[in-house]
Write a structure and sequence with these properties.
It contains 4 helices and 6 strands. The chain has helices spanning 2-17, 21-27, 49-63, 123-130, and strands at 28-35, 46-48, 64-77, 81-92, 98-110, 113-120.
């Protein structure tokens, strides 16, 4: 089961890279919960459902030119969770400032769909949430 969960999450990232939001939504439960850190500017701390997925994904690319995501680490975790660390790169549309920043995610997969997606600024917090800290 954990290998299936890893593949579901990898497929979601691949769909984002192709800008295929319909494919992303097919991988997400209709009642998905998205939780993002409140310290991120312009981000709602919680979104729900497919509309929430669209809102969450729309925030980042709209603010950047040449926005890219590189997966650095993917690991299966207890309870149907998948831990992911990514490096994001881009140039601010208004500021022109280059940004290179790592984020971590914990996805919960249930019945073949992503049911929860949590974003973390600190990798150690994500590892703890995924049950992988020790």
């Amino acid at each position: 089961m954990s290998e299936e969960n890893l593949e579901i999450v990898r497929s979601a990232f691949a769909a984002v890279e192709r800008d295929d939001m319909q494919a992303v939504l097919r991988l997400c439960d209709e009642d998905i919960v998205i939780k993002q850190p409140p310290e991120l500017p312009g981000v709602s701390p919680e979104q729900r459902g497919h509309q929430g997925v669209l809102e969450a994904f729309a925030i980042w690319p709209e603010q950047w030119d040449d926005y890219r995501i590189e997966i650095l680490r993917v690991a299966a975790a207890p309870g149907g969770k998948v831990f992911v660390t990514v490096r994001t790169r881009g140039r601010g549309k208004q500021s022109g400032v280059e940004v290179d920043m790592d984020f971590s995610f914990v996805f919960t997969v249930r019945e073949g769909k992503i049911a929860e997606w949590r974003l973390f600024v600190q990798e150690d917090q994500a590892l703890e949430a995924a049950g992988l800290s020790g």
